[in-house]
Amino acid sequence: MLEQTQHPEIEAETTGSATVESVEEVQEAPEVEKEKAKRRLSDRNKELTFRLRQTERELEAERKKTAEITAKAAIKSEPDPEDYADRNKYTQDREAWKTQERAKIRAEESENIRQEAKRTEHQTQLEKQKEGYISGRVDAIKDDPKYHEYEKEIDKVVEAFEAPEIQDLILAASKQGPKIVKYLGTNPDELEEIASASPKERAFLMGKLVAKLEAKPVKTISTAPNPTRSEKGSAPRPAAPSGKSFDPSKETFRQYSQRINGR
Question: What global pTM score does this model have?
Answer without folding.
Answer: 0.40
